[in-house]
Design brief:
The chain is mainly alpha-helical. It has four helices and two strands, in the order βααααβ.
Length: 151
């Protein structure tokens, strides 16, 4: 499955390849904000891993920053979903932003529930998966090329 722009040119490098290339999209502000929020979400997710590691190594005082940054990450994934919707509305042929943002949102809130419940193994494992998903969102968003507004 390839993301195909309205002009009909495929974004991959050929049949059967999974190459990701720059894609020209509309909506400079939404794309810029999506990139920014995706990077902030990645940094928040990585800081979650840092404070979780400190807590697991016996630093009980790191649980408060871990809980506080969890609220920040929850807020960021909601904003990321709204921005993904805005990017998708201007570029309906672009298939990845909306499912990616929805997946990150669902996994984030599942991970929070697991943490509150005390299921440490599942919580940490899902946190690692979320770090990879956040990185993928950043990389994909940075590959978008915004069309000139004059055309």
């Amino acid at each position: 499955m390839h993301d195909t722009p309205p002009e009909g040119a495929q974004s991959g490098s050929g049949t059967g390849t999974a190459a990701i290339t720059n894609q020209t999209v509309q909506g400079r502000t939404a794309v810029t904000l999506l990139r920014t929020v995706a990077v902030l979400n990645l940094l928040g997710t990585l800081s979650q891993g840092l404070t979780a590691g400190m807590f697991l190594n016996g630093d009980a005082s790191s649980i408060d920053p871990h809980q506080t940054s969890a609220f920040v990450v929850e807020f960021l994934v909601v904003v990321q979903l709204v921005l993904a919707i805005l990017v998708w509305r201007r570029n309906r042929w672009l298939k990845w932003p909306l499912p990616g943002a929805i997946s990150i949102l669902v996994f984030t809130f599942t991970q929070v529930a697991l943490g509150v419940e005390g299921s440490g193994t599942a919580h940490v494992t899902l946190g690692v998966a979320l770090s990879a998903m956040a990185m993928a969102m950043v990389l994909r968003s940075l590959q978008l090329r915004v069309a000139d507004s004059t055309t």
